[in-house]
Amino acid sequence: MTQKKVLTIAGTDVSGGAGYSADIKTFEDHDLYGFCALTTIVSMDPSTWAHRVHHVPLEILDEQIETALSLKPDTIKTGMLPNEEVISRARKAIEKSGADYFVFDPVMVCKGDDTVLNPGVVDSMQKELLPITTIVTPNLVEAGNLAGMNTPKTIDEVKEAAKKIHEYGPKYVVVKGGTGLEGDNALDIFYDGEKFYGLYADKLEKAYNHGAGCTFAAAVASNFTNGLEPLEAVKEAKAFVTSAIKHGSQMNEHVGVVRHNAYNKVDKVNVQAKEL
Ligand code: PXL
């Protein structure tokens, strides 16, 4: 196979914006071959949009991982990992795989449903996954949880959280501040263990952004797999997801989803990277 291969260990989101479908669409758009070991099935109550999360039985997850590893992924990305058992299976799979990169998207909350999935998973994410991570991609809430702090609200607090997360062992940390930090820009912060860089895009007024977090992490995974340098990989991933948000569409009264292929099919937005 001439294309490189990326395995995502993630859940489905029936709306198609987030979860493994976001990953596969994003890998495809980066000319990579994507495949999935499914952890959870998520559906939404059409009247309240409350997320209903069903776990795939562990023996079925084990079977999928066995198959997936026989396909020899170059990179592994994780999405929704609902409990300690699934996290430890993901760890074993990553260690066994010989993959070049592990991109850890520590999914704890879904947009449109603020309940933290399972606070009990933070400890095993810190101890089992962060030490073997190439790059971890938390949003502000997830960064606070992984760092053992309150949700960071300022650039200095994000830097503090990134440093604390880095101490658990990942090579790189990128915190998705998005529109949640001060200033006129949608700002994400990248930390390579020595220096901090701000990734700046315009704040978008009409943000159809369901799936943005998964899409960003999948684009980071794609860019590492395609050999980009780490800072370039996160900068390009932010441009990819910002285009996807800009050209997203409203699906029903509850949800608007990103357009995963907008960067290559519609327009390439501009992102600036500056040392902070
Ligand atoms: O956006 C986080 C997320 C990840 N994975 C799955 C989801 C969601 C949010 O809905 O359903 C499967």
From TrEMBL:
Residues 13-258 form the Pyridoxamine kinase/Phosphomethylpyrimidine kinase domain. It catalyses: pyridoxal + ATP = pyridoxal 5'-phosphate + ADP + H(+). GO terms for cellular component: cytosol. Its EC number is 2.7.1.35. Gene3D superfamilies: 3.40.1190.20. InterPro entries: HMP/HMP-P_kinase_dom (IPR004399), PM/HMP-P_kinase-1 (IPR013749), Ribokinase-like (IPR029056). It comes from the Bacteria. The keyword Nucleotide-binding applies. Keywords: ATP-binding, Kinase, Magnesium, Metal-binding, Nucleotide-binding, Transferase. GO terms for molecular function: ATP binding; hydroxymethylpyrimidine kinase activity; metal ion binding; phosphomethylpyrimidine kinase activity; pyridoxal kinase activity. Pfam families: Phos_pyr_kin. GO terms for biological process: thiamine biosynthetic process. SUPFAM superfamilies: Ribokinase-like. Belongs to the ThiD family. This is pyridoxal kinase. It comes from Nosocomiicoccus ampullae.
